[in-house]
Specification:
With 259 residues, this protein is an alpha+beta fold. Helix content is 42%, strand content 19%. Strands 5-6-7-4-8 form a five-stranded antiparallel sheet, covered by helices on one side. The protein has a two-stranded antiparallel ribbon with strand order 1-2. Strands 3-9 form a two-stranded parallel sheet. Helix 3 packs antiparallel against helix 4 and helix 5 crosses helix 8. The radius of gyration is 22 Å and the shape is globular. It binds flavin-adenine dinucleotide. The site of flavin-adenine dinucleotide (FAD) has 22 residues, from helix 1, strand 4, strand 8 and helix 3. The site of flavin-adenine dinucleotide has 22 residues, from helix 1, strand 4, strand 8 and helix 3.
């Protein structure tokens, strides 16, 4: 509900609303952000993706399946089972996406039945530097509040947006109690996303042979089961660096690389 004093209907320009703050949650397009603030996420880090709803995958629905294909260097392909029969397949690539999707289906799931298809983009870059004192504050995908490793922005984007909305509410009501704490939450979550993006830049620059070797060593070490119970899928940089830099993990990895 918009108070009458702050909204007016102008036939030439549409509905005009006066506001002290504007939260921009436009997602990938972020047209207003670009036009008004001349700001945007790293455009070349958006990877076009096609997600299919499929039937007949015949894989164990307790797991999610990731496929690191050489012809898909920017992002992994995935199959997420919804149940024994139905699942979601995602394939992302900056070029020849449809051709690569057909190749992936032909190689990996030749008999699958496609129910529905959605085209969009996943963000694999750094979060935007935002000014919390600005009149216009971007949140979610528009601000690149996304894990560059998976393109997932629901949890981290939601947490950051929640803190930003609390800061704005405190300011508008002049109840400054929460502001410092919530600014700190925004800063630390954004730093985490920045670090994930930096780490992914390094991993994506490695030759395939090295990535294959790393997977092989981790697989042989038997750490996968332990990590899947301990690691936090949102705070990936913090939990991965703690786990991988512990002397116990280093020894296990060294042993499995030489045996
Ligand atoms: C195929 C796929 C699978 C994904 N899977 C996952 C997952 O499993 N887990 C996860 O965490 N994340 C996932 N993500 C990412 C996740 O969807 C996004 O991070 C999240 O939706 C971002 O939310 P948002 O509200 O910022 O943007 P969006 O969800 O893109 O919403 C933006 C909304 O703003 C509207 N809009 C745009 N411009 C304007 C305008 N000028 N005026 C008014 N409205 C406007 C749009 O129509 C849209 O409804 C996936 C993304 C894709 C593409």
């Amino acid at each position: 509900m918009i108070p009458e004093s702050t909204a007016s209907n102008n036939p030439a320009r549409g509905l005009e609303i006066k506001a002290e703050k504007l939260v921009d949650a436009e997602g990938m397009a972020s047209i207003l952000l670009r036009k008004i603030l001349n700001k945007t996420t790293e455009r070349n880090m958006w990877i076009p993706i096609i997600q299919l709803w499929v039937e007949g995958h015949s894989l164990d629905p307790r797991y999610v399946y990731l496929f690191f294909e050489r012809y898909l260097p920017e992002f992994f392909a995935y199959l997420i089972p919804v149940n024994d029969e139905v699942g979601k397949i995602g394939v992302a690539s900056k070029n020849n996406l449809r051709i690569k999707l057909h190749k992936f289906l032909k190689d990996r799931f030749p008999d699958i039945k496609i129910i529905r298809s959605v085209s969009h983009g996943v963000y694999t870059g750094r979060p935007l530097k935002i000014d919390l004192d600005s009149m216009i504050i971007p949140v979610g995908d528009a601000a690149g509040h996304v894990k560059a490793s998976t393109g997932g922005g629901v949890i981290m984007g939601g947490l950051i947006a929640r803190s930003i909305s609390k800061i704005i509410a405190s300011r508008l009501t002049e109840a400054s109690t929460d502001i410092h704490h919530n600014k700190e939450v925004v800063r630390s979550l954004t730093r985490e996303l920045d670090r994930i993006a930096n780490l992914m830049r390094i991993i994506r620059s490695l030759p395939f042979q090295i990535i294959d070797k790393l997977f092989e060593v981790v697989d042989k070490s038997g750490l996968v089961e332990e990590f899947s119970k301990k690691l936090d899928m949102d705070f990936q940089y913090t939990s991965f660096s703690r786990a991988f830099l512990s002397p116990y993990t280093v020894v296990r990895l060294l042993l499995s690389s030489i045996t």
